[in-house]
Amino acid sequence: MRKRIMLVAVLACAAAICIIAGSLFFMDRGVRAIDAADYMEITAELEAGSELNVLPDSSEGVPGMKLVADNSDLSLYFNADTTEVAVMDKRHGKVWYSNPSNRSGDTLASAFEKEVLSSQLTVLFRDSVGTLDTFTNFARSISNKQFTAESIENGIRITYTIGDMSLGIDALPKYISKARLDEKVLSKLDESVARYVSTRYYPREGNPEVLERLDEQVSKQLVLNKMIAAFAKAGYAEADLAFDNEENGSGSAGGSSRPNFVIPLEYRLEGGSLVASIPVGHVKESEGYQIRSIEMLNFFGAADASDEGYIFVPDGSGSLIHLNNGKVKEEQYVQRVYGFDPNDNSWRRGQVSESARMPVFGIKAGNAAWFAVIEEGDGIASIAADISGKKNSFNYVYSSYTLRGEDELELYTGSKIQEIQLLNDEIYKGDIQVRYSFLAGDKADYSGMAELYRDRLVAEKALEPLNEGEDIPFYLDIAGAVDKQKSMLGVPYSSVISMTTFKQASQIAEQMKQDGIGRLLMRYSGWFGKGVNHKSPVKLKTDSVLGSKSEFIQLSQQLKQSGGALFPDVAFQQIYHNDGGFTPSSDAARFVTREEAELYPYNRALNRMDMSLGSYYLLSPAKLPFYVDTFMERYESFGMEGVSLRDLGSSLSADYRDDRVIQRETAKQIVVEQLSKLDEGMDETMISGGNAYAWPFADHLINVPTSSSGFIITDEEVPFYEMVVHGYMDYTGTAVNLSDEQDVKQQLLRSIELGSAPHFSWTYEPSSTLKYTHFDAMFSTSYKDWYDQAVSMYKEANDVLSEVRNERMVKHVRHQEGVVEMLYSNGKSIIVNYTDQAVNVGGNTVEAQHYWIGGERS
């Protein structure tokens, strides 16, 4: 009996252990992941090339170059010695060069800088111990004739071998038989040289008939040079080396041990554009060396010191760097497209700036301009620009591409800290593609660039025109519940408090309706999952401190009946609670260091992460479809017609998990698919931030950039972003009451200039309630403090902007500092005077801190 009881107990324990182990196993697997390979745009097979075909040229052509492609708008020329190309715009008689045609006469540039000016590619790479190095294709390929050129449809492909292709020590056999060394080498040399060679080989242990190279001596450069010269004098050829390596099992010892890379660069003419591309899937790296990034066409269309104009960069709403502006001591402009990657294990921020939300850049020089759009690889792209007078005499802007993730690993050895630079092993395998278009005359400015970009997006159905006849929206952020630390008997605990209940939000909406604001678009944050920083969006239960689900639904119906809408807000990519719907070990992204991507908010005073502010995890992009699908399924029961997406249109993060590396470009493809699903499933979507890839799926954009970062090297901010999207979707910037600019009059003028609707962020409870929470940045949100100003601002803005809401912005002009004009496609013109003095523009007086409306509706 006792044995039976013990047996039962043992079996019960075993069963319990199995159940627990099984539960832990399945918990560790987390939620369902997609196959990231399905979203990777891997380079297809290269188009078959043919022998370079030089076309007959009836024009004067480009001196020193041959015509290799031609259409009705453009001609493409190629220099077979330098591999530079030139594009002749036959419509305007302008030639644009891949490299400055007058670079040889640059008295400022050093010999090294002239090599850089002559390059089309710059490769940054690391060796096996993490040392960073840089190769340009001029110094390491073109000057050594290590390239081939071939014709492709409507263009040319140049394949560069960048690096030292000499074999070095491996030009000599590692192992060779005594007989072969005597026959092939020693017998053909004089006695002293033969003796010199023979003493650098010694019998191999265990097989004295085979000799081994004495690398300790031969690796010295002087010895190596003598040995290679001796073997060459003896007539020892590549076939002999291959035979000896094969006979003695040296394997790949004859391969180069030096860094070298094979990179194809293609140019094609497509209508009025030049398309430059790198099929990265066909890039080759020598063993032990990994490419970190590639810079492409750094000096395409560069402007020299005599040119007048500017560089356009996508900093925030848009920014101009005046040519030759003399700021030679300032750092160059560099920004990642779509903002920095949150998957960065760095405690300190490099800079606080607006994001570059568009993959575009360009140059205006005199009465001509070019404009570039990054069409593929934009998720891994950065844009850089600089002026003349630093390293050379040219102004230039270009794109670069991060092919691998990079991070620092700190190793602690006693009291010392050693930092090792790490690259993830898997390289980006898609294409890089940039489209260069050309403008002239009155279209050769940033307004013309915006028009060109917008028209292309409209043709691609990425932008759809707005309906006519509606008021502009009033965008209102409502903060519902937030988490707050409390204590009982000295014991701290986390609680959820209400800042605005559903009924209180209803009261605000009713009050605004009574005051004539019907088109109220309410973005409600913190409605489920423990407040604004909510749980993973898989269990959608309204927070009880706010009211019931039925009250939430009634709020939505109330807004709809008055002409507005409710947009409950949800975040997908940042997970603030480690609950049953999220398992960090499997569902979180990983840093390059393989750690889980757990981050902390930045302390604004210290500009570094602050652990006291709580942590959050970055969701792996591979898990994003599961959360979106689950959210949509559960959200359906609320009967909502709109949704606000907090982070899908503003942030892109990679995942460097060993068995599932997802680069930012792949993450972009995954996010775009989720945006498409949400757009199809909802009547209206509101997207925060507004990266360009999100535009096709947005009905409303909030928190769009309305200014630039103000980098010292830049000179002027322009509303390029607004000029592209105006007339195709409603949009607004950051909340007026949380802006750095607290002058509501100035905010109104800015809204009128940019065509953006008013936006406020409110709570029903006083802002002081947020003291000692993670939301103390919401320092001025009590709606009663702002209500009258907000209503007044909206009514005035609506009177002006409703007339042009669905019109295109066709021209932006800065008449003088603080005085700007926006012209619309219906003939309307709005002049805004930010200054303290009345000004006269074109015979029209614009009062101080006011605006003037002119033109006739066409």
Automatic annotation (TrEMBL):
InterPro entries to which the protein is assigned, alphabetical: DUF5696
Superkingdom field: Bacteria
Name used for this protein in its record: Uncharacterized protein
Protein species of origin: Paenibacillus prosopidis
The organism's taxonomic lineage, starting at the top: Bacteria, Bacillati, Bacillota, Bacilli, Bacillales
